[in-house]
Amino acid sequence: MPPNRMLIALVTALPLAGLPLAGHAGPRCQAPANAETDVTATVTAMYAAAAIDDLDGFHAVTTPDFYAFDGGRRFDGDALMQLMKTAHAGGTRFEWHVTQPKVEADCTMATITYVNVGSATVNGVPQPVTWLESAALRRDGDRWRIHFFSSTRVPQSVSK
Question: Which of 1, 8, 122, 154 could form a disulfide with 159 if both were Cys (CB 3.0 to 4.6 A apart)?
Fold first, then answer.
């Protein structure tokens, strides 16, 4: 089938398969008025829990099927918190600050992209660190919970 006909066939078949077309998803439900503040606070709460190895606090702001991409690896469930706990046991401490957040949300889903400006203290010596991060959140009743989290460290020469 020629490429143009293949594209036309695909575009015609997607709505029949129940998949919305980009830009044609139909009416969206409205995001809560405080979505940007609440989504940002949820991510900040994840960092607060990670800083003190608070697994219950982490569970309070993540979905049961949470996963993350960090440091070139995939972490399922509590594995990211285990990584933090191991780092803390070795004397490493992190400081995180969500800056320049951009939140897009409707009534059930949200995404946030931001610059995380902080530090990693190893052997008592703090080093500035910047990460580019994003997360996808689901609304669970009256609260947002992180379903997916991604972090990419900015090389120090670029972040200056």
Answer: 154
The H-or-E segment that residue 49 falls in is: helix 35-51
Q: Which domain holds residue 123?
A: 29-159
Between β-strands 109-122 and 93-95, what pairing exists: parallel, antiparallel or unpaired? Answer: antiparallel
CATH assignment of the domain containing 84: 3.10.450.50
As given in the structure block, the two tokens for residue 15 are 């709505």
Cα separation, 140 vs 152, in Å, equals 27
User: What 8-state DSSP symbol labels residue 111?
Assistant: E
Q: One-letter amino acid identity for 49?
A: A
Percent of all residues in the chain with a pLDDT value above 70, rounded to a whole number: 81
Q: How many domains does the chain have?
A: 1
Q: Please indicate, yes or no, if residue 7 is contained in any of the structural domains.
A: no
Residues of the chain where predicted confidence (pLDDT) is lower than 70: 1-27, 157-160
Burial class for 86, CB neighbours closer than 10 Å (0-12, 13-18, 19+) = exposed
Question: How far apart are alpha carbons 81 and 91 in whole angstroms?
Answer: 15
